[in-house]
Design brief:
285 residues, 47% helix, globular, GTPase activity, GTPase_ArgK, GTPase/Isobutyryl-CoA_mutase, GTP-binding
Length: 285
């Protein structure tokens, strides 16, 4: 695969990402040597079986028509190697075969939020080397998919009929994380009812987020969803909300890096307590 962006060597990117995923110290050096630039992160989360991968697949290809686009698919970890199973990448045939889209599978490594700890550095790296739109698809662990809010500029909460999503959203409060609510597999029975219930729940909670219907297999509704994503990103930029989200992302990334330093260098060291006390005393100064 070759990126549409001149000067981006995808083999080199893959090698750099492998280092970033496995070595926090090297990650900081690599990213620190790159100029900062604007880019947008689109999170795609929701229940297993909702069709997140096929939806992300189509969205990325549409996005690549106008923007440099990358996809980071978070796969479950192998219990033996800690590596990704690559299931999402197999389901993203359009994007993996599209020379304009860079696709990377990363292992969740058991992280409860569905995002591996190195994902923040990986996304920052992709943004700095020239990708304008970075889609991050989470593992799909339902109620635990909350870390994506701290990473993404905009979050798509993907649901599908027959998965009990209406009950889960009310129980878990997962509606708090979505900017756009997507009823995928709109050709299945119960899709209209799920959309209506979702709108009703949003209305009762005083939220005015869009509820959109898609069929990611046939492609219906996906272009309209992509247009809505860009419109919301523009409105967030104009209102200052995008800047607020990015400040939060930077803070979370810094905290995550601090955690990795502790984990890698002090986990079995008697200086751990001293280091934690120092960090707590100096956060916010």
């Amino acid at each position: 695969m070759n990126s549409m962006k001149p000067g981006i060597d995808q083999l080199k990117i893959s090698r750099s990402l492998s280092i970033i995923e496995n070595d926090t110290d090297s990650a900081r050096k690599i990213i620190g040597g790159l100029p900062a630039r604007d880019y947008c992160v689109i999170g795609v989360t929701g229940s297993p079986g909702a069709g997140k991968s096929s939806l992300t697949d189509r969205l990325a290809c549409i996005s690549a028509e106008e923007k440099t686009t990358a996809v980071v698919a978070i796969d479950p970890s192998s219990p033996f190697t800690g590596g990704a199973f690559l299931g999402d990448r197999i389901r993203m045939r359009r994007a993996t075969e599209d020379p304009r889209v860079f696709v990377r599978s990363m292992a969740s490594r058991g992280n409860v939020g569905g995002l591996s700890p190195s994902i923040y550095n990986s996304v920052e790296f992709l943004g700095r080397i020239g990708y304008d739109r970075i889609y991050v698809e989470t593992v799909g662990a339902g109620q635990s998919e909350t870390d994506i809010v701290n990473l993404a500029d905009i979050v798509l909460l993907v649901m599908a009929p027959g998965l009990g999503d209406d009950v889960q959203t009310m129980k878990a409060g997962i509606m708090e994380i979505g900017d756009i609510f997507v009823i995928n597999k709109s050709d299945l029975p119960g899709a209209d009812q799920l959309a209506s219930r979702t709108r009703a729940i949003l209305e009762l909670s005083g939220k005015k987020f869009p509820v959109m219907m898609t069929d990611s297999i046939k492609g219906s509704g996906v272009e309209e969803l992509q247009e809505e994503i860009e419109e919301i990103l523009l409105s967030y930029f104009s209102s200052g909300r995008l800047a607020s989200k990015r400040a939060k992302r930077n803070l979370y990334n810094n905290l995550n890096s601090a955690y990795q330093i502790i984990k890698e260098h002090y986990a079995e060291n008697d200086k751990l307590e001293e280091l934690i006390r120092y960090l707590l005393e100096n956060i916010g100064r």
